[in-house]
Amino acid sequence: MTHVDPTHDDPVVAGMSGAVGGPLGERAARGGAFSVLGVLLAITALTFALGLLTKTTCAQDDWSLQEADRFTHACSSEVADEYTGTGLVELAWPWSGEEATRDRYPVTDQPALVGLWTYATARVTYLLSGSPDVSERYRQPVTAVAQSDDAAGERSLFMAVNAVLLAGVAMLATAALAAVHRRRPWDAAGFAAAPVLALAGAISFDLLAVAAVAGALWAWSRGRGVLAGALVGVGAAAGFWPVLVLAAFLLVAATERRAAWVLPSAVTAVATWAVLNAPAFLTGRAQWERAWSATFERGADQGSVWRIVADTAGLATDVGLVVSWLLVALWTGLVVALVLLAPARARVSQVALLLVAGYALLGIAYEPRQALWLLPLAALARPRWRDLLVWQAGEVFFLAATSWWQGGLLSPGSGETAGFYWVAIVVRLVCTGWLVAVVVRDLWWPEADPVGDPETAPSGRSGDEAQDSTMRSNVVAV
User: Fold this and answer.
1) Domain spans, the chain
2) N or C: which end of the chain has fewer CB within 10 A?
3) Are 67 and 75 in contact (CB under 8 A)?
4) Which of 374, 439, 430, 356 is nearest to 398 (CA)?
């Protein structure tokens, strides 16, 4: 089996290869699958490390900079804030219903799997810090605890522990994406070397869901529907959006009149999600529900088109929320129609990208880290660096503008709303729209799709076996 070489397949990579002697020659030695994977993992590690370097200013101060300063230096981190902001510094259970804990700290608004992850990494931080006596902290004001030297050091260590583990999670995602298409492992480079991964990978916990989705796509490509469903369940326990990947499985299978294939996946997805949510649900149901309310009851917030509407024309929270979800539902209906009417079968990554992009474009709020949701899907759905970079240029610009806006740097002296931030939102929408447009084009004109032949067989056969078979109609593509 010969791998598709990116220096021949991608015009951007081919042009850049001139700096190192040009595209790979026909007589050049080619490494095996392990060497390709090794390079991809090294690229992932380098990308992640470069991203951490952009947070040096905050890291040098143990992530203790004032909020405005962190935003000014674009190094604010949801991970660091979680440690001292939700009681992990006192080893408080995230969903504790104890009155003393709730009087001191707000309930975490993280999904169940993220809450379990943060509690586990807080325990690791506690052990690596020499197991300090946290009982002394109960008698101090919360602000005093957060500003203490001990807590600052632990917060920095907590950030380091999570950075190492999240880097490992990113590598797992790269490995899964590289294995989806046997002849196209280099498509995973769109994830491994992504600017979005560098800038947002270590500052949030979204990579947990991202890696689960990457694994689900790999499992589906090997016909392992039960495992694919279980991984979707893992992802859904870390964020609601992976459910849309399960919807993509169903929609693509339905085009082949084999929707029943998805039933085992759906069952295992629900079961896995329930198991991972059980600790939070059983120990603090009211607190567990906080994550759901935080997700589905937000008003017009940063990053969305609704923010512009709210700033310019005013927008009631309830109205904006309803209209937003109605438009997302309409978008989903249009995606369904497109997939059913397309002249060729759609690939799962294409459908999933279009479904998730609907929320990214029309959702009531959008944070820079949410670009990670689209990243593994984009790498497989449109493995062309031109389109990936166009999309990510908008995301990087938006990330910087959001940070500066939150730090007050984009606020006009007159006290009016920040028009420059609106520009950043529009740029993000346009660049995401570009990515959506080229994927829609690939669906409607299959000859433009760089991936071409599908490689997955939910019936249990591998993609290569399916391609060698005369029963090509059995294939459902990733």
Assistant:
1) 9-13+30-474
2) N
3) no
4) 430
